[in-house]
Design a protein that fits this description.
Blueprint lengths: L1 E5 L8 H11 L5 E8 L4 H5 L3 H25 L4 E7 L2 H12 L3 E7 L3 H6 L3 H8 L4 E6 L4 H21 L1
Helix pairs in contact: 4-6
């Protein structure tokens, strides 16, 4: 089974590693591609900097972002390759998944308040919109106070208003 594991420097991006380790312990022949996508530099920065300097910065950032994932996979003897791409994350993740013919994309995400999801569509949604390859999204983190109390209270209040209006 070939798995694409996109990571950034966040703790939440490492959520799928435990799942991959469990697959390996269960006897599934899993090969992982660890991917980090680095953004393009703004044209004003590119205009006044050397390509080698920009590539060096991207390489350093990518290594730092992938370091914990690589260490965790190495300790569990899970075979992997590490790749770095440049561009928009959702587009590059979907493109690499197609190019490498992976069986599944596993993404770790943090938990954010519901209202934030409307303002900033997640990379995971962008990946799902661009490919037919199965995407497993694993959340890490605890829901905040807003998610635990304010959103349910708001939904209950709205339901009460609808019922009272009838």
């Amino acid at each position: 089974m070939k798995i694409l594991l996109p990571v950034d420097s966040s703790h939440a991006a490492l959520a799928p590693i435990a799942h991959v380790e469990a697959l390996a312990r269960a006897g599934v022949d899993a090969a992982v591609i660890v991917l980090n996508v680095q953004p393009r530099f703004h044209r004003h920065i590119s205009q006044f900097s050397a390509r080698a300097a920009r590539d060096g910065v991207r390489t350093e950032r990518s290594r730092a972002a992938m370091a914990r994932a690589i260490e965790a996979l190495s300790l569990k003897n899970v075979p992997f390759r590490a790749l770095t791409e440049i561009g928009r994350p959702a587009e590059r993740i979907a493109a690499v998944a197609e190019r490498e013919r992976v069986d599944e994309i596993m993404m770790g995400v943090g938990r954010h308040p519901e209202w934030l999801r409307w303002l900033n569509p997640s990379i995971a949604h962008g990946v799902m919109a661009r490919t037919d390859i199965p995407v497993t999204v694993l959340a890490r983190g605890k829901p905040g106070v807003l998610e635990r109390y304010a959103v349910p209270a708001g939904v209950a209040g709205l339901a009460a208003l609808l019922i009272a209006g009838e």
